[in-house]
Amino acid sequence: ISTKASNFSSTIVKEEDYTGVKFTGLNGSTDIMVSNVLDGSVKYPFGSDKFFKFKHYLSAVKIYAKAENSSQDIGIWGEISNVIIMGQTTSCDISLPETAGIDSFGEVKKWGTENAKLPITTTPIFGPNDSGNQNNIEAEEYPISLDGGNTEKYLGYSLIKPLVKDSDEVLRIQIHTSAGVYEVNVNENFEA
Predict the structure, then answer these.
(1) Dist. CA 155–CA 123, nearest whole Å
(2) How far is CA 128 from CA 135, 137, 154, 155, 166, in A?
(3) What is the pLDDT of residues 116-170, one digit of tens each?
């Protein structure tokens, strides 16, 4: 099996301890969702006890910025011109489940070792046709000015490798502004 959309691709891999799918070309806007494995036929159709479920393998991280009320805070940042997610992998291998069933999902066997810089995505996270979802917002047009007050500005999102809280892993965000380039490290649990 091989599919292509942009630089994203998936191919079957056979390793010593598993057969799976290698996904490459992960760019921060491409998600990996895999369904469970079910058996069915005309004689034994799917029903209320047999249905497809999907599992996400990446974490969706939405990024906001806010300057406090002081003009000093606003002046320090300047206008935001770009946001980059640093140190990201662009590939992973997911095993194929060995048995069929409602909860039969593969697991991530290995993440790539790339150290990519991924731009955040500024389009709505659920696509432009899901306007009824209040979480499906589009980022403001760049450059973004922080005007003070308690107003958060939505900068965009990225789909990343999940991070485990209290581990050595951190989400590294690089923020490009008219006043300079700043890096922010976030140590949170970002589950798939």
Answers:
(1) 10
(2) 12, 9, 16, 16, 35
(3) 999 999 888 776 666 666 677 788 889 988 776 667 888 999 999 998 767 788 8
CA dist 6 and 2 (Å) reads 13
- Please report, as a single letter, which amino acid is at residue 68: E
Q: Enumerate the H helices of the chain as residue ranges.
A: 71-77
CB 189 within 8 A of CB 85: no
Q: How many CB atoms lie within 10 A of CB 39?
A: 10
CB 192 within 8 A of CB 55: yes
Tell me the two tokens of residue 125: 């996270």
CA dihedral angle for residue 192, residue 27, residue 173, residue 115, rounded to 10 degrees:
100
CB neighbour burial string for 151-185, b if at least 16 within 10 angstroms, e if fewer:
eebebbbbbbbebeeeeebebebebbbeeeeeeee
Rounded to an integer, what distance in angstroms lies between the CA atom of residue 20 and that of residue 39? Answer: 19
For residue 126, what are the CA distances in angstroms to 134, 138, 141?
A: 10, 10, 18
CB 147 within 8 A of CB 74: yes
Q: pTM value? A: 0.83
Output DSSP code: residue 121. Answer: B
